[in-house]
Design goal:
48% helix; single chain; alpha+beta; three-stranded antiparallel sheet; 14% strand; 142 residues; two-stranded antiparallel ribbon; 5 helices
């Protein structure tokens, strides 16, 4: 990959960031630690990076490993937080949170049902959950 002595990540710098971001996504997806953990990991790494800009120029390159590790952990945490943010289970309006007390759901069909040889296909949106006496607004597709 090193053509003429130039490493591949010099031509495409995203190749350095992508493994850390993908590691964060995989860690959050398969192990699922709390979102607060990632924020607490980002705090000292961000402080380390900010302090390194305040230090004199010659001491910035004295310990480059610390700066590199802080940036790597920062991108791992960013990947994990992206998964946390985009996961529907973390949304307070998600209907899967309160399935025990739901007696019925009101759905709205967004398109006409289409029949296939061995199955059917409908696109619907949940409008309201009906509990014993009250209804709650919901978000998501059924």
């Amino acid at each position: 990959m090193a053509a003429y002595g130039i490493p591949g990540w010099r031509k495409a710098p995203f190749l350095r960031i992508f493994p850390a971001l993908a590691t964060g996504v995989l860690l959050q997806w398969y192990t699922g630690p709390d979102e607060k953990l990632w924020w607490w990991l980002m705090l000292p790494c961000s402080c380390t990076i900010l302090v390194s800009f305040v230090l004199p120029w010659f001491s910035l390159f004295k310990y480059p490993q610390i700066h590199g590790i802080a940036i790597t952990i920062l991108f791992i945490s960013t990947g994990a937080l992206l998964v946390c943010k985009n996961d529907i289970r973390n949304n307070p309006q998600w209907y899967g949170r309160d399935t025990q007390s739901i007696t019925a759901m009101q759905v709205l069909l967004n398109q006409a049902p289409s029949e296939k040889p061995k199955s059917g296909n409908q696109l619907a949106a949940c409008r309201q959950f009906i509990k014993t006496t009250t209804g709650n607004q919901a978000m998501g597709s059924c």
